[in-house]
Every structure is written in structure tokens, then in C-alpha cells.
Design a protein that fits this description.
heterodimer; A: 8-stranded mixed beta sheet; two-stranded antiparallel sheet; 5 helices; B: mainly beta; 11-stranded mixed beta sheet; globular
Chain lengths: 205, 149
């Protein structure tokens, strides 16, 4: 066999092998492996710099997101309904994911009510939801640095008797190990949606 | 004659003899008062109110001797923003049932007068239009955070 023809045959064989491999890989990444409930960003977006405190009083900033996945919910302790319900769902989902043996995400309640939610109050509150739940609070301006970059909104409305209500985004934000916004879950939330999608989301990096 | 009933199971109210029909005008069921979370936050209350009348039933207010005040709120999620709005009253259409449930309309029991935990008994007073005060006793239930616990 002439040398150029042998080279051509080898090149065509390699091309065929490469094409087959690519086809196989794409087949493995079938629609069934894509998240069904969460909205995943086409490109993760870096979380902005900010400085808050966690429920132990320690600094909580952008670096606090590194090296672990984070499930973040923005709420407040005086919310009797959707906030504890969402944290409860996240805690249950986390316990179900524990059977996989893989590193678990941390769950964060970031308070949109720093006026009432001191680190001490958050420590009492998040303890109810079990290990892996962290409360975060702090200066309002610092909080807005974080929320604006994540597309999270919150606001206060005054009521009678010096009561006030807080409106806030109900999304659960997923931040990856590089402190980047990776995905978000929109309400209404469910344990099954978290359990189904989180392994898929966390396997993409 | 008013009768006190325990919640957590179906609680059927027989009201004053001013209503001569056999069927009571309303009933409460599936009453669940979730324990207040640590830190002094409010407790949440859920139940189903059935209106057995041929006219609307209006719940004006709820109170409890164990809490400074009880309010009726509705959680609404619009464009991924959760808003909690206080209701001055709750109207239930004729021959309809209304469910106060998580993520929707609920009772907000504010400022417990003393520490309250799952298993503690409390009293709730429902002020309905035309029917006076309906009083029930119920047991606070735990919020489960981990399956199987």
C-alpha cells in the first residue's frame, strides 16, 4: 500500500473514531440528564463582593461560597409561612441527597430583615432546621450588593403598630464552588424538584 | 349551647339554638398550629372552614389568650416575589369550604405570651359574623425538618 493512501486510511479511521466518541458522549448527555425544574444559567455569573456576618458572628463574604455548593434563600425570621416552609423543604432535600455519599450543599438563609434578624436570633432560628443551615445578616447596603447581582429583590412596607411586612424574591439560588450563580429554582418549591435537579446541577462543573 | 371541641381531627360545631336547623352553619377541620420557631417569630396556623349556609360566611377576627394577636394573612407569589398581605376579614362563599394552607392564606399568631412548643395546648377564638365567638382548644404541632424524625 502506498504511503499517502495508508496515511489517508489512518486519518479517516481516527476521524470515524472521534465522531463516534462525540456521538456517544452526546447520547450520554440526554435530555433526561438535564435539570427539569431549575433554570440553569448558560454561563455561571460571579457573585459580587459583599461583607455580611453569619449566625456565629463570623464574616460571611464572597469567599464563604467557595469550595462547596450553596442553596440560598432570602427570607426573614418573622415570616411564618413561606420562609420556614422553604427552609424545611431544603433541609429535607439535603437529607435525601446525603444517601449519595457526595459532598452536600450548604443551606443559607440570608435575612432581608437585618433590623430584627441579629446573628443571635438567626442562630436560634436556623438551629431548628438541622446541620448545614447557616443564617446570614448584616448591613443593608452590603446585602444589596449581593442581592442585586443575583437578581433578588426585597422591600419593606409599614403597617399598623410599628409592624412592617417584607416582600422578597422567593427563588432558591444555587451558587457553585467557585462562588458563581449557577442556577435558580422558582417558587412554588418542592422537595422532589430539589432532589431531582440538584445532582444534575452540581455535576455540571 | 356552645360546645368546645379538640382540633387535629374533624371538629364539628353546634351553635346556639337561635339557629333551628339541624345542620350547623359552619364547621372547622384539620386545624394545625405549627410551633413558633426559635427567636420569637410568629407561629403559623392552617385549617379548613366549611360554610354550610346558603349565604356567605365572614370571619372577622381570630384571637388567642396565648398570643398577643392573631392575624389573617395571605402569601402571594407574583413574578417570583413573595408578598404577605394582611386580610381584615375572610369571606367564604355559600356552601363552600375554604382551606388555609401553606403558601396561601394562613393565620399568623404573633408574640407568644410564654414559650410554646409542640404538644402544648392553646385556645383559639374565631369571631364569625352573625355567629358570635367560636372557641376551640388545639395542640401545637411540630415542624418536621428531617424525614423520619
Amino acid at each position: 500500500m502506498q504511503k499517502p493512501r495508508r496515511i489517508l486510511i489512518v486519518a479517516l479511521s481516527l476521524l470515524a473514531l472521534t465522531g463516534s466518541a462525540a456521538f456517544l458522549i452526546n447520547g450520554l448527555r440526554s435530555p433526561e440528564s438535564e435539570p427539569k425544574y431549575a433554570t440553569v444559567l448558560p454561563s455561571p455569573a460571579a457573585v459580587a463582593e459583599f461583607a455580611l456576618r453569619d449566625h456565629t458572628g463570623a464574616i460571611f463574604d464572597r469567599d464563604s461560597f467557595r469550595d462547596r455548593w450553596s442553596l440560598v434563600f432570602f427570607g426573614f425570621t418573622h415570616c411564618p409561612d413561606i420562609c420556614p416552609a422553604t427552609l424545611q423543604q431544603l433541609a429535607i432535600a439535603r437529607s435525601r441527597l446525603a444517601v449519595s455519599g457526595k459532598p452536600l450543599p450548604q443551606i443559607l438563609l440570608i435575612s432581608v430583615d437585618p433590623e430584627r434578624d441579629t446573628p443571635g436570633k438567626l442562630a436560634e432560628y436556623v438551629g431548628h432546621f438541622g446541620a448545614g443551615v447557616i443564617g446570614v445578616t448584616g448591613d443593608l447596603a452590603e446585602l444589596r450588593k449581593l442581592t442585586s447581582g443575583l437578581g433578588i429583590w426585597f422591600g419593606k412596607s409599614r403597617g399598623a403598630n410599628d409592624d412592617y411586612e417584607l416582600e422578597h424574591s422567593s427563588a432558591v439560588v444555587v451558587i457553585n464552588e467557585d462562588a458563581e450563580l449557577q442556577a435558580l429554582f422558582s417558587a412554588p418549591h418542592s422537595v422532589d424538584a430539589f432532589v431531582a435537579d440538584l445532582p444534575r446541577i452540581m455535576s455540571t462543573t | 349551647m356552645k360546645r368546645y371541641a379538640s382540633a387535629l381531627t374533624l371538629c364539628l360545631l353546634l351553635l346556639c339554638a337561635c339557629d333551628s336547623r339541624d345542620e350547623p352553619p359552619l364547621s372547622l377541620s384539620a386545624v394545625r398550629i405549627l410551633e413558633p420557631l426559635p427567636g420569637g417569630g410568629p407561629a403559623a396556623g392552617y385549617l379548613t372552614i366549611e360554610n354550610h349556609q346558603d349565604r356567605p360566611l365572614v370571619l372577622n377576627a381570630v384571637s388567642s389568650p396565648q398570643f398577643e394577636r392573631v392575624q389573617i394573612h395571605v402569601t402571594a407569589i407574583e413574578d417570583d416575589v413573595a408578598r404577605m398581605q394582611r386580610l381584615d376579614e375572610l369571606a367564604i362563599d355559600a356552601r363552600q369550604a375554604f382551606e388555609l394552607a401553606p403558601g396561601g392564606t394562613h393565620l399568623m399568631l404573633i408574640a407568644p405570651r410564654h414559650p410554646l412548643n409542640a404538644g402544648d395546648r392553646i385556645t383559639l377564638q374565631f369571631d364569625f359574623d352573625d355567629h358570635g365567638l367560636l372557641i376551640i382548644d388545639t395542640t401545637i404541632v411540630a415542624r418536621r425538618t428531617v424525614e423520619g424524625s
